Amino acid sequence: MYKELPDRMYMVFRHLNSEVEYIRADLHQAEVDALHAECDRLTAMMEPTSSCGWKQDQDGNWWTSCGKGFTFVDGGPVENGFKFCPYCGGEIWMGQEE
Ligand SMILES: [Zn+2]
Predict the structure, then answer these.
(1) Distance from residue 50's CA to the centre of ligand 1 (Å)
(2) Extents of the domains making up the chain
(3) Cα distance between residue 44 and residue 15, in whole Å
(4) How far is the CA of 55 from the centre of ligand 1 (A)?
(5) pLDDT tens, 64-98?
(6) Alpha-carbon distances, residue 37 vs 31, 34, 62, 86 (angstroms)
């Protein structure tokens, strides 16, 4: 079918084809980049957590995601300078109510 096209037309077609391949390659690279980013994100989530979520109940007790309870005389982890859970060693983060 290409043979029936004038030479000039054939050249244009070839050019367009290569452009399409170029764009396709770009798109593919974007997809690869996106997949890499997603993999990194998921890997970060899957890695053994070195963090421990602390939640305060209505009585002022703190409950850790590693299954322990803790009561401060005054304030909470932040006010008392707690950075790491004394039970599991994970970095303390204040979990939101779920
Ligand atoms: Zn813990």
Answers:
(1) 9
(2) 1-47, 48-98
(3) 43
(4) 11
(5) 999 999 999 999 999 999 999 999 989 999 965 44
(6) 10, 5, 35, 34
Distance of alpha carbon 3 from alpha carbon 90, whole angstroms: 71
For residue 83, how far is its CA from the centre of ligand 1 (angstroms)? 11
SS3 assignment, position 93: strand
- Measured in Å, residue 51 CA sits from the centre of ligand 1 at 7
Supply the pTM of this predicted model: 0.48
**The residue type at 37:** A
**Residues in contact with 64: Cβ distance below 8 Å, sequence separation at least 6, in sequence order:** 52, 53, 54, 70, 85, 87, 88
10 Å CB burial of residue 15 (0-12, 13-18, 19+) is exposed
